[in-house]
Design brief:
- By secondary structure, the protein is of the alpha/beta class.
- Among the domains are: 165 residues, GMP Synthetase, Chain A, domain 3, CATH 3.30.300.30; 201 residues, no CATH class; 177 residues, UDP N-Acetylglucosamine Acyltransferase, domain 1 (3 Solenoid).
- 37% of the residues lie in helices and 17% in strands.
- The chain is built from 20 helices and 52 strands.
- The protein has a six-stranded mixed sheet, with no helix packed on it. A six-stranded mixed sheet has the order 22-25-30-33-34-35, with no helix packed on it.
- Strand 34 and strand 35 form a beta hairpin.
- The radius of gyration is 28 Å and the shape is globular.
- The termini are far apart.
- One of its GO terms (cellular component) is enterobactin synthetase complex.
- Keywords: Membrane, Phosphopantetheine, Phosphoprotein, Repeat, Transferase, Transmembrane, Transmembrane helix.
- GO terms for molecular function: 2,3-dihydroxybenzoate-serine ligase activity; phosphopantetheine binding; transferase activity.
- This is Carrier domain-containing protein.
- InterPro entries: AB_hydrolase_fold (IPR029058), ACP-like_sf (IPR036736), AMP-bd_C_sf (IPR045851), Hexapep_transf_CS (IPR018357), PKS_PP-bd (IPR020806), Pls/PosA_C (IPR012728), PP-bd_ACP (IPR009081), Trimer_LpxA-like_sf (IPR011004).
């Protein structure tokens, strides 16, 4: 209706109708059929449509002699011609042989005839998916061509010039990546028991403390008779954050002794030691929220050089190869690890951030990265080399955006605020204590009502936890105001506490996210959230966030994170407009907005306010303009569902209580088993606690496996509107994964053959010797990781997209020896060829194909000239 109306408004148009058509490649295309008179001008019509309509709704225009009608008088859209009458000849005049070859590809993908060098890919109906498919075909002759080349040169003549400049492409890498050795895999499996034993220490400490307090009291016959000295000693060792962090640092330093910068074999001794050190840190919870105020001291104990006045709000590398200069700033979720797996090699290097330099949220500083004094790295960037002093770099890979870094928000010196460290320590312990208080509340209900009421008590405990999070965020919001504030101040502490507790809440209260209740939850927290909003695991500062009607916030979106600079913290209001979309891992920085009907794609950042306009779409880092196809799905299944579908969704989402209750039962089972061992002897409980946790992990993995097959069955490629039973059943199965499978099993076994076996049970095709350091494979049946392939830490093998409120699923394949770099995302229908590498913080577009034995990097990816075979390997 709306599109037909806009077509009829065009000068010289007597009749019009829009219809969806499918090309020979299977792509959907929106075509506007026009009956015109002599005054019609195609260029003018296209210009007017672009001014009046969102880019995604502008159809490809086709002039026809008449519009067929039904007996009712309405236009018969099924009778409109398709394919369109061809104007092609064997060799279109005015086209070179190369242009004709490109035109043939466009014809297959778009169903369009290319007759002139000025023909525009997007004017002919191209979008992001068809662009990736077209580039995949072009790479058969020109391996170095990137999707960005097509966006920058959409006319066939200009694109042909770029292809000629590229030539036949680079020589293929002479590299064959072998599978991980069985000896390495066996070593990892054997290490799981002592690692889980370290984690069991915290369980034992809590049980001994509870027993010391409650032994001999009526109704607490389960309590173990244990001396207070033993209970306190165990609690100090495993529960007091500085002590626990010191123990972790000691073990990590022992494991990594002698490991320095260099390149090592994947699956070799150094790689295994690095994996083990990372697991020790996780199992001892050395970098938990409770220990956040001691993070700099922990980094120094690992060997890092942290200067006074530095703000470190991200995890330090276990290698200790980190240098932070005075008054430097590292924002949340920055990857400072300094290592990654590249095919059959492991790269390890030092990371340096100079005096008064700053690194934006969700960036990655790779091995050898050096951010010089006074320089700035924008959020979501990748640095693999040196950023010169005082310059501003952004993007993946990072490039110079301006000669001067952005000036500080004020020239004033922040107050010393030394006593505010104590405030951060108290706040961190308070946040960490919230689940403990919820457990006590649930336990009190059990004591009062009896064990038969355990399910009600469990729900009561979760309700108390949600209420505590809500109260803490609301109290903090009293001090949260837009602007810049000293990091060590009441306002800075309030912002930090809000972000920390809501980050934890995404795990503690996962069933409240990606659900119909999520907008309600966000409103209760203080955010302005409109009608019909869909939100997943979004992280925001509620006091400053405005999400308008029918907006969509996908998984792990970061909306308005705080910024740091020279002892100051800045927060600003953020707005997401009506029907706007922010994709998975998308970011909207402080003070920015996403206008109505706009889109920020997967792993992408919203542009500055002056650059972004309503109805536009943006991709990558730095963000570039994106064209996307229009949605043709029934609004009753996307934006305006009937009541029966709302009721159906509510009933299915009530099923999220099941994994919550199973988690409670699993906790009680572990506690009961450990208490039985502690009755024998405390040392027996400590020694065999790892066995108990491993068995609990197996139970959680099997429950998740059973839920997946019972609720969803086998995933297949296809589209499903948001308001459909399949989507909600799929989300319910994912709740089992996030609540049971991930914390108890998958996060513990990442990078091991044990995780590979479980993923195979869930339907994924996992070959021999695969290194998979991520469990984020949403629709496992659609994933194929062939022999020797690598999925680095922080990666998402994204087998679905949710644009325009339609779940679109397709396969993802990593062929023999292929590598997906850390913190990267590969989208549906994409393939990484044999022994090819996609580097860190990269985005492989939907439908894209990476040629075998080549190297790619970027968001979106482009050719990477770096040659790993020239790097000398250490043993």
């Amino acid at each position: 209706g709306e599109i037909d109306g806009q077509l009829l408004r065009l000068p010289g148009v007597a009749g019009a109708a829009a219809a969806v058509r499918r090309t020979a490649s299977g792509n959907q295309l929106l075509v506007g059929y026009l009956a015109v008179d002599a005054t019609y001008d195609a260029d003018t019509a296209l210009t007017l449509l672009r001014e009046r309509m969102p880019a995604a709704l502008v159809p490809r225009l086709a002039v026809v002699e008449d519009l067929p009608t039904r007996t009712s008088g309405k236009i018969d859209r099924d009778a409109l011609p398709w394919p369109l009458p061809s104007t092609r000849t064997a060799a279109p005049s005015g086209l070179t042989p190369l242009q004709s070859w490109v035109g043939d590809i466009w014809h297959d993908v778009l169903g369009a005839d290319v007759t002139s060098p000025k023909d525009d890919f997007f004017d002919l109906g191209g979008g992001s998916l068809t662009a990736a498919q077209t580039v995949g075909r072009l790479r058969e002759r020109f391996p170095e061509v990137a999707v960005g080349d097509l966006y920058a040169n959409p006319r066939v003549g200009a694109l042909a010039v770029v292809l000629e400049e590229l030539g036949g492409g680079p020589a293929r890498l002479d590299r064959t990546v072998a599978p991980i050795r069985p000896r390495t895999q066996v070593g990892q499996v054997l290490a799981l028991l002592p690692l889980r034993t370290l984690a069991a220490g915290r369980w034992v400490a809590w049980l001994l403390l509870a027993s010391a307090l409650l032994h001999g009291r009526p109704g607490f016959g389960w309590a173990v008779d244990v001396p207070w000295s033993v209970a306190l000693l165990t609690a100090v060792l495993f529960l007091v954050p500085p002590v626990r962090m010191g123990l972790a640092a000691l073990l990590v330093r022992i494991v990594l002794r002698g490991v320095g910068p260099g390149t090592y074999p994947r699956g070799g001794r150094v790689h295994l030691r690095l994996w083990l050190a990372s697991r020790i840190q996780d199992e001892l919870a050395a970098v938990s929220t409770a220990g956040a105020p001691w993070l700099q001291r922990y980094a120094r104990s690992l060997g890092a050089d942290i200067a006074p006045g530095a703000d470190l709000h991200a995890l330090p590398p276990v290698t200790g190869l980190l240098t932070l200069g005075p008054r430097s700033a590292v924002e949340p979720e920055v990857d400072l690890g300094g290592f990654w797996i590249d095919g059959d090699r492991l790269h390890v290097g030092r990371v340096r951030v100079g005096e008064q330099a700053r690194v934006g949220a969700r960036s990655m500083l790779g091995p050898g990265a050096d951010v010089a004094p006074g320089a700035e790295v924008a959020p979501g960037s990748l640095v693999l080399g040196r950023v010169p002093p005082g310059e501003y770099w952004s993007g993946s890979p990072a490039e110079r955006s301006s000669d001067g870094a952005r000036s500080a928000w004020t020239e004033e010196e922040p107050p010393p605020g030394r006593l505010w460290w104590l405030g951060y320590a108290v706040s961190a312990l308070l946040v960490a204590a919230l689940p403990v208080l919820a457990v006590l509340a649930g336990g009190a209900l059990v004591l009062r009502l009896g064990w038969y009421w355990l399910p009600l008590a469990a729900l009561g405990g979760y309700a108390v936890l949600a209420a505590l999070v809500l109260v803490l965020v609301r109290v903090c919001s009293l001090w949260v105001t837009p602007g810049h504030h000293p990091t060590r101040s009441a306002r800075g502490l309030a912002v930090w506490t809000t972000v920390r507790v809501l980050d934890e809440a995404r795990t503690w209260l996962f069933p409240l996210y990606s659900a119909a209740l999520t907008p309600v939850w966000l409103r209760l927290l203080g955010a302005r959230v409109g009608r019909g909003v869909e939100a997943s695991t979004v992280l925001l500062i509620p006091r400053l966030a405005h999400v308008n009607d029918h907006a969509f916030l996908a998984d792990d979106t970061l909306i308005g994170c705080y910024e740091l600079s020279r002892g100051w913290m800045r927060v600003e209001r953020v707005k997401v407009g009506k029907r706007a979309f922010v994709g998975n891992s998308g970011m909207v920085s402080a003070g920015r907005k996403v206008p109505k009907e706009s889109l920020v794609a997967v792993l992408s950042a919203a542009p500055r306010r002056k650059k972004i306009r309503a109805g536009t779409s943006w991709l990558g880092s730095p963000p570039t303009r994106l064209r996307r196809a229009a949605s043709t799905v029934d609004p009753g299944r996307t934006y305006d569902p009937p009541t029966r579908l709302k009721v159906y969704r509510g009933l299915l989402e009530t099923g999220r209580l099941v994994p919550l209750l199973l988690t409670v039962l699993l906790h009680l089972g572990v506690a009961a088993a450990l208490l039985a061992l502690l009755r024998v002897h405390v040392l027996v409980g400590l020694a065999l606690g790892g066995v108990v946790l491993i068995l609990a992990g197996v139970v959680a993995a099997l429950l998740t496996w059973a839920a997946k097959w019972a609720l969803v069955g086998r995933h297949t490629s296809g589209d499903h509107p948001l308001w459909s039973g399949f989507v909600w059943r799929n989300e319910l199965a994912d709740t089992f994964t996030e609540v049971l499978g991930a914390p108890w099993f998958a996060s513990v076994t990442q990078g091991t053959v044990v995780l590979n076996v479980w993923l195979r049970m869930l339907g994924a095709k996992i070959g021999r010797g695969v290194w998979c350091d991520s469990y984020w494979l949403p629709e496992t049946d659609l994933v194929e990781l062939r022999d020797g392939s690598t999925v680095n830490h922080g990666c998402v093998v994204q087998t679905h997209l949710f644009h325009d409120r339609v779940l679109s699923m397709d396969t993802v394949t990593l062929q023999l020896g292929a590598t997906l770099g850390p913190n990267s995302v590969i989208l549906p229908a994409a393939t990484i060829g044999r022994h090819a590498t996609v580097g860190p913080v990269s985005l492989v577009m939907r439908g894209e194909s990476v040629p075998s034995q080549t190297r790619w990097l970027g968001n979106p990816i482009g050719p990477w000239d770096d040659d790993p075979t020239t790097t000398k390997e250490r043993r």
